[in-house]
């Protein structure tokens, strides 16, 4: 009997569209490899209950961003004792939170590029004075590359 693999894709995060594309590619690859696949989009009401009724052998998590990469779905799957791909609850929660990840890396003495955590209250140009161009700006709790920008140069100030 073929193993039954559920592909979780879609979801409610801003990264839904890329998750749907990733999930489709994963399903196609699993089918080619001889697995029976079941696709579930947690954004659709009652779809996750199908996961329990279908008695899958494992879940391939193709969800991106919050709800998929932050330990939430991993914790739910662990409570149901369903094996899944990727990192566990703690690793997922820490990895999606850039500030927490950096603190752990620092505590372990791991090398990392200079960085600055900016809160929603704003910042001034002086906040960036120790950073060298170019640098990357990324949301603190997001996966994928949504919201990422690269600052390559600065405009001259009006005083120059």
Write the layout of secondary structure elements.
Elements: E1 4-8, H1 16-32, E2 36-40, H2 47-54, E3 58-61, H3 72-79, H4 89-96, H5 98-107, E4 135-137, E5 149-151
Parallel strand pairs: 1-2, 1-3
Antiparallel strand pairs: 4-5
Kindly list the characteristics that best describe this protein:
single chain; alpha/beta; 3-stranded parallel beta sheet; 32% helix; two-stranded antiparallel ribbon; 160 residues
Widest beta sheet: strand line-up? 2-1-3
Spatial shape: elongated
Overall strand count: 5
Radius of gyration: 20 Å
The low-confidence parts are: none
- Helicity level: 25-40%
Number of helical segments?
Answer: 5
Mean pLDDT: 83
End-to-end CA span: 73 Å
Give the strand content: 5-15%
Structural class: alpha/beta
Biggest sheet layout: 3 strands, parallel
The sequence of SSEs as H and E is EHEHEHHHEE
């Amino acid at each position: 009997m073929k193993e039954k693999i559920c592909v979780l894709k879609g979801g409610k995060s801003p990264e839904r569209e890329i998750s749907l594309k990733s999930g489709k590619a994963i399903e196609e690859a699993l089918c080619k490899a001889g697995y029976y696949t079941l696709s579930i989009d947690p954004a659709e009401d009652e779809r996750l209950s199908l996961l329990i009724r279908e008695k899958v052998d494992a879940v391939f998590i193709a969800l991106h961003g919050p709800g998929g990469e932050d330990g939430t779905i991993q914790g739910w799957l662990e409570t149901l004792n369903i094996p899944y791909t990727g990192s566990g609850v703690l690793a997922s929660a820490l990895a999606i939170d850039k500030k927490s990840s950096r603190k752990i890396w620092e505590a372990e003495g791991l090398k990392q590029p200079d960085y600055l955590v900016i809160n929603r209250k704003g910042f001034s140009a002086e906040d960036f004075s120790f950073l060298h161009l170019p640098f990357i700006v990324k949301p603190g709790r997001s996966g994928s590359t949504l919201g990422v920008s690269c600052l390559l140069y600065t405009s001259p100030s009006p005083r120059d």
